[in-house]
Amino acid sequence: MTLAPTGPLAQASRQALAGVVVPAAELVQVSKHYALGQTDVTALYGVNLSIEAGSFTVISGPSGSGKTTLLNVLGCLHQPTHGKVYIGGTDVATLPDRALSAFRARHIGFVFQHFNLLPVLSALENVEYPLQLIEPHADVRRERAMEALKSVGLGQLALRRPAELSGGQRQRVAIARALVKQPTLVIADEPTANLDQKTGAELIALMREMQHRSGTTFVFSSHDPQLLADADERVHIVDGRVVEPVTASRAANLHLAKGASHEHG
Ligand code: ADP
Ligand code: MG
């Protein structure tokens, strides 16, 4: 019998204690095909990617290049057609469906281009919502949601519905909702695409600040080159392929650097 905690993150933290650097997330030779009627659309071709724990990584690329597909695979919303997805060192394909859903609910926060807030709920209730799966006490849920809203500067607007908020404020609510469960990984798919330039830049600065404060790993996509400057790692994707060379630190972290073949570009 063992009393050691189990699961991917416990494993990752044990490895971290042992001095092994475990990437927050990793894609190895990931391809993704969609069946579209009779045709087969390939959205990703053999993508290799290692996301360093605690980093702020941006995936850039033109519309249709595969950013959303890549983030959905990384966030375990979709399975790759080929290849491996590791979260905290664990091959997610080995997790049974229910364990994977629970894992995702607990450890991965999502921010979407269209905000995806529930219109009938207040800002506070929207932020509280994901905690229902992981926090049994209603008063604790409310308290944590309020804290998260305050941390994005929206404490005063907690009772407003999404329709009563500006685009930038809605996206702040979405960030609070992603962060409230203190996830390991926050995935933001073009979070600034529906915002004007200035509001978009403010939002990226806010995500950066939250990342510094919480130590959470952030991966966001954008097709706006002006928003890339502040990232720790930049990954450029064109037609489903990573075209930016894999940096030395990233290559050192890749499982495949230990022997498997290496395709990119
Ligand atoms: P981006 O987010 O960079 O705009 P996507 O990941 O949405 O790119 O799309 C990449 C490619 O995959 C595009 O050619 C797109 O048309 C195709 N694609 C995305 N989702 C689907 C789907 N559900 N069915 C068929 N093709 C899809
Ligand atoms: Mg997209």
Description:
The structure is a single chain. This protein is of the alpha/beta class and 265 residues long. 32% of the residues lie in helices and 23% in strands. The chain has 8 helices and 10 strands. The strands form 2 sheets. It has a 6-stranded mixed β-sheet with strand order 6-7-8-3-9-10, sandwiched between helices. Helix 7 (197-214) links the parallel strand 7 (185-189) and strand 8 (217-222). Helix 5 (138-151) packs across helix 6 and helix 6 (167-179) packs parallel to helix 7. The termini are far apart. Mean pLDDT is 86; it is low at 256-265. Residues 67-68, 189-190 line the site of magnesium ion.
Q: How much β-strand is present in the residues?
A: 15-25%
> Would you tell me the overall average pLDDT?
86
**Number of H- or I-type helical stretches:** 8
> How many β strands by DSSP?
10
The major pleated sheet works out as: 6 strands, mixed
Helix content: 25-40%
The run of helices and strands is HEEEHEEHEHHHEHEEEH
- How does the overall form come out from the CA principal axes? globular
Poorly predicted regions: 256-265
Structural class: alpha/beta
Distance between the first and last residues' Cα = 47 Å
Unique bound compounds: adenosine-5'-diphosphate, magnesium ion
Oligomer: single chain
Strand order of the largest sheet: 6-7-8-3-9-10
> Which radius of gyration do the C-alpha atoms yield?
18 Å
